[in-house]
Q: What sequence folds into this?
């Protein structure tokens, strides 16, 4: 029995090592920043992309809280978000605007979700985020161009219209209307 139990334990240990290697390979090769915090808000894991973004090695991040790393206002917001999602057991999926003093405004897509134990109790959170500033800038530029075109179409004296492939009017300007 002891031999069987030892063999089963070795198999479980080998399976756990394979699973951990897979996890680390995944989180280190994704282009996103990934982190994990315990219920007290202390970082327990961060991928190298996150470490590089903070300019700190993992050893200086693990055990720290948002208050040790970020400005007070941001740390308070992050902690409120974490507490809310752990209490509600609901993920957070949002785009946040950040602007450090003297730096350009950035847009960051953030997804956070609570980590639950086998009893369904929240024991922390895991988060992933990435910069979407360029996408937001392109969307804003496109909206600006669209608005300019609308103003032009509505105020030009020429009659302008657009039709679809079935020859139905899709849009007409004020002069034609």
A:
């Amino acid at each position: 029995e002891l031999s069987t139990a030892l063999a089963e334990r070795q198999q479980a240990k080998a399976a756990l090592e394979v699973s951990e290697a897979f996890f680390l390979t995944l989180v280190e090769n994704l282009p996103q920043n990934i982190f994990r915090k315990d219920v007290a808000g202390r970082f327990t894991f961060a991928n190298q992309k996150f470490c590089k973004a903070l300019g700190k090695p993992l050893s200086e991040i693990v055990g720290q809280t948002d208050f040790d790393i970020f400005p007070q206002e941001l740390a308070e917001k992050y902690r409120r978000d974490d507490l809310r999602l752990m209490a509600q057991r609901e993920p957070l999926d949002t785009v946040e605007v950040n602007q450090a003093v003297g730096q350009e405004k950035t847009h960051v897509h953030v997804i956070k979700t609570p980590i639950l134990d086998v009893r369904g109790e929240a024991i922390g959170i895991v988060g992933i985020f990435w910069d979407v500033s360029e996408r937001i800038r392109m969307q804003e530029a496109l909206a600006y161009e669209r608005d300019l075109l609308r103003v032009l179409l509505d105020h030009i004296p020429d009659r302008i219209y657009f039709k679809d492939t079935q020859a139905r009017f899709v849009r007409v300007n004020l002069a034609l209307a």
Remarks:
- The radius of gyration is 25 Å.
- The CA atoms of residues 97 and 107 lie 5 Å apart.
- The longest helix spans residues 2-29.
- The mean pLDDT is 92.
